[in-house]
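Page 42, continued from yesterday. The earlier attempt failed because a stray header line got pasted into the input along with the sequence. Redoing it now with the clean sequence only.
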Amino acid sequence: MTRGAVNVVIAQRHPLIKRRVDRLVSAWKRFGGQTQFYATTLGSLPDAFINYRTELIRLIATMGLGAGALAVVGGTVAIVGFLTVSTGALVAVQGYNQFASVGVEALTGFASAFFNVRLIAPGTTAVALSATIGAGATAQLGAMRINEEIDALEVIGIRSVAYLASTRVAAGVIVVIPLYCVAVIMAFLASRVGTTAIYGQGTGVYDHYFHTFLNTTDLIWSFFQSVAITVVIMLVHTYYGYTATGGPAGVGEAVGRAVRTSLVVAAVVVVMISLAVYGQSGNFHLAG
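This time it went through. Structure tokens are written below.
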């Protein structure tokens, strides 16, 4: 009996098993396709820097400062700044009140130096990147796919993965460098202003504990963490946009899937890098 005949017999006698097997095979194929796309995109980064510099510069300007109506408010830089101001202010509110309940409100500066760098700023930046740059990349590539513009690029000899995906990954990494600096500065500033101006803590007390616990190594690792998150987010969003199907409704579904997937993967990356860098002890010593 041939393999095709065996499959027919299984499908007739055990339809539930057949459906589950087909679903498993389909999921495995999608995983393999994503892995292949990610490898191709990363391998084409040198090609993007060498042959598609003009497109890369255009994407950097669009991602950083925005285009159209988004440029009025300053683009992604302003959005990340507003988000981190909110989270930094929450550190001041929650940190001061929680520490004050046990009589050590002076340690609010420690909370800002410790939590903003290690968790809050990277997590907030990941959300902002996924909701702005990432979602925009998925929508753009999805629209190009359903309008057959990507096929047209292939016809005229342009390597579509390098031109569309690799350039966006590279632009995202370049943009996140000043973006993350703005995020950390705004988080620190909001925490300090909230603690000293609203709650009336002395600036000298706050600055003493803040500078005591602010570790330069943590800042460097936090920066590399944000770069890793950016690479993952841009890879996920470019894949879902590049492979979008089903017309305009399919593009909307692709954007939704990309945002959900990138946020989950970014959270996993934050956890894994934190465990790898800080370990179980957290590399923390309460002194000073």
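Notes: Residues 34-275 form one domain.
Reminder to self: strip header lines before submitting.
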